[in-house]
Design brief:
Layout: E1 27-30, E2 38-40, E3 43-49, E4 53-60, E5 65-71, E6 75-79, E7 85-90, E8 93-98, E9 101-105, E10 108-116, E11 118-125, H1 129-132, E12 164-167, E13 180-182, E14 187-190, E15 194-195, E16 213-219, E17 221-227, E18 241-246, E19 249-253, E20 258-263, E21 268-275, H2 280-283
Antiparallel strand pairs: 1-19, 2-3, 3-4, 4-11, 5-10, 6-9, 6-11, 7-8, 7-10, 9-12, 13-14, 14-21, 15-21, 16-19, 16-21, 17-18, 17-20
Length: 303
């Protein structure tokens, strides 16, 4: 990233979009090390946010209830483990999500009733202002991220208002990355994780130009490695970050930081990656998104 008057900006390899002039630091929530923001009958819930998304992580018992009234947009519910079961009800009807699943719930009124306890995640955009206010890291976003554009929802799903539930146990397939599902506001990549530490000579540093990555550690122990680019204004430089986060936790990784997550636990290390809005690059890969028939891409874009 060159200075304003540097002639190297005329090189073919120079980026065409305006270069960043400042950066946002990463934000981390270590739920195992802090009390829940909500502790009610049969539920314990932690909240954390980024520029576009709120993650609500809950440990629940059978009989727990979550209700939304006047929900402004679609949200997602993830059951990360088998043996957990919930009922999701809206005015048009109800559905049962059992075991590892990703569900998308329409705007408006909805009710989640826990039938078999465990842990669940609810994923909301920052349009849910009441939940934004509960986040432990709200101060981190008192100023918006200059490199994340305003949130814009993708098209509504085909087939009208209903709860849509997708399995997190779809078998792996050669050439397909994870189990990716998208809604109108949120994309979830439901991976299997890996047993044992990740080899330090086989990491995958990469960056995103203009969207965050929410890495939810479900199991194990991780180090999130981040490096921000140097720009001509050295007062905006940020030192490298090597943040250790066990499970459960969330790392909000801002653009355009180069990043990679290294599992270091001896047992299962498992991340759930979330993006808000859905990623175009993942969506453009044929076969990667498993529910494309239900959720179209924005007008003028095709897979």
């Amino acid at each position: 990233m060159y200075g304003q008057n540097d002639l190297r900006t005329t090189l073919v390899t120079a980026q065409k979009a305006p270069a960043p002039t400042s950066f946002k630091r990463a934000s981390y929530a270590r739920f195992y090390a802090e009390p829940p923001q909500e502790s009610a009958d049969r539920t314990r819930t932690w909240y954390v946010r980024g520029a576009t998304l709120v993650v609500a992580y809950s440990e629940v018992e059978a009989g727990a209830v979550f209700e939304r009234t006047g929900q402004p947009d679609e949200y997602a519910v993830v059951i990360p483990d088998d043996g957990v079961e919930i009922e999701i009800a809206i005015a048009e009807g109800s559905e049962i999500a059992s075991g590892k699943t990703v569900s998308f719930v329409p705007s408006g009124a909805s009710k989640i009733t826990v039938l078999k306890g465990g842990r669940i995640l609810r994923l909301f955009t920052i349009e849910s202002a009441d939940l934004v206010a509960r986040c432990t890291n709200a101060a981190d976003y008192a100023e918006p991220d200059p490199n994340v554009p305003p949130l814009a929802a993708w098209p509504d799903p085909v087939g009208g208002r209903k709860v849509r539930i997708y399995s997190g146990n779809v078998a792996p397939e050669q050439g397909r990355f994870g189990r990716i599902y998208r809604g109108s506001t949120i994309m979830v990549n439901f991976g299997d994780g890996r047993i044992g530490p990740r080899a330090p000579d086989n990491l995958s540093p990469h960056h995103h130009d203009d969207f965050e990555q929410y890495s939810v550690a479900l199991d194990g122990d991780y180090i999130h490695h981040l490096r921000w680019p140097w720009i001509s204004d050295s007062t905006q430089w940020i030192e490298d970050d090597h943040a250790r986060c066990a499970a459960p936790s969330v790392a909000v990784i801002p653009p355009p930081a180069t990043h990679t997550s290294q599992g270091i636990g001896e047992g299962l290390n498992r991340l759930l990656d979330v993006f808000c809005p859905p990623r175009r690059d993942f969506s453009a890969k044929p076969g990667w998104v498993l529910n494309t028939d239900d959720y179209p891409m924005p007008e003028g874009e095709t897979v």
